[in-house]
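Exercise 7 asks you to align residues with tokens for two separate proteins.
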Amino acid sequence: MSTASAPLRVGIAGLGRLGRRHAENLAFHTPDCVLIAACSPVETERAYAEATLGVGKTYSDFNAFLQDPDLDAIVLVTPTSLHADQAIAALQAGKHVFIEKPLALDVADCLRVEAAASARPDLIAMVGFVRRFDPSHAHAFDSVRQGEIGRPFLVRSQTCDRLDPDGGFLAFAPTSGGIFMDCSVHDVDLARWMLGNPKATRAFASGTIAVHEDLAAMGDVDNGLAIVEFEGGARAVFYASRTFAHGHEQHTEIIGTEGKLLIGQGAPRDHVVRSDEHGVRHQATADFFERFSDAFRHELTAFVNACRTDGASPLSLQDATEATRIARAITASLHHGQPQEIQR
């Protein structure tokens, strides 16, 4: 294993759209680590890792990848349905593991990963809830904890993607867990974080298909709303969309007894507002890569630092399990049209 005096030797599994971003950050933008291996069943993705990232070893077989004795840590950016088994295998192979969100599509699998991590307390297991590493959200969290808005009791948060007329996301929609698991699980984690991690007790959701009719056969929607109730009276409201015309718009509002905080209103790309014969406007962020580019780098840096210094994970697997638990209840409410009690 690496020590604090040596760079962390990292391998990445999964080189799709998000996997490439993580791989580029590991190869070029993350201090104190070196990307030495990549795993993908897709030949062109392995060739990309070798030619563009300078990765010395590539694997098509995940088990062979795990057995590489030179690897200290694994970054998983694979389909969500594989996360739990692959994370457990990585821990059992003696590797630190970073898992892209969500931890798993059901609570039982999340708990299996928790058990495997508990059996290896010497290893870091971290889930990529990237918004916790976004400077604006981190600043808001600090403000809440310092009591600047009194007692927080309501969070309203949304994740709204720009419309893709070709419906490219439909290729992975059947295995994503649905819009709330794929998009709103970030907002769920943010709400719990800002509210002090209360237990969720009940969820209700509704949704509609505004554009992508193919989602009906999957039991999914392209616009969804949810309300979650927490012990102690706190509430959260979530909105998810895949059909925004102007760009990617993620914003979060935290309301307290003495004020409120609003993060990301209007999806601004910069602080330039244009006024002309067409009206008053500003440019919007195109996608979540642009909006959270710094945060993606910050979270991998935090993971590497925890691995190299025997520190604690910046966020717990229990937080990831609760996010899945709540997102599952929201999705069940969408399917059944009734409020869902959140069981433990």
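Second protein for Exercise 7:
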Amino acid sequence: MGSPPVAVPPPHRDLTTRARIRDAAVARYAREGFGVGLRTVAEDAGVSAALILHHFRSKDGLRAACDTHVLRLVREGKERLLMTGGAQDLLLQLASMDQYAPLLAYALRSMQAGGAPARQFVEHFVADAEVYIADAVAAGSMRPSRDEKARARYLTVQGLGALLLDMTLHPPDDPTDVVGILHRYRDRMMLPAVELFTYGLMTDDRILDAYLRYVDDAPEGHGTDGSA
């Protein structure tokens, strides 16, 4: 007997058979990960596993279609939020819109799985971070950095990585409940994070100065990106 069907609430309802299969797969993968079999997705979509293979050729083909679809919808949602000045709260704002929660759950699953789709999701969030950090620096609410792009990438990877680790240590009952996941994470982590970002950690700049001297003296081919 298969798992209970998962509700599929896509932002743009497309009732073609191919789209119905894809949306069912996105919802199921968001809840349970990419180990779910085609028969379970077929049950959710109300079709046969053979029909999934007809439309997508393989499970990998279905996953690729899901990745493309979710990336497109996240990009469209991000662009709408950026136009309204909401880049700072992109994850929470998207998650608070019920129709987008499964998409962000899927994105988190994809980042857990790794690979090219995970890198694409991270690049979207890095681009957003660059925008709102630049705005904060221009407004005087954030200090400038020696390397703004590197700082945006670090903060994005740090934030997403901490969230994914927190989800591993405190697995949610419903992985698609992105709003609840973010709120519980906020309750555990927000105070120390804000305190650290507000006051800093070091009491002087000796470690930074030592690192900058190391970078200046490093032999050619040993860059700050960790390459040897």
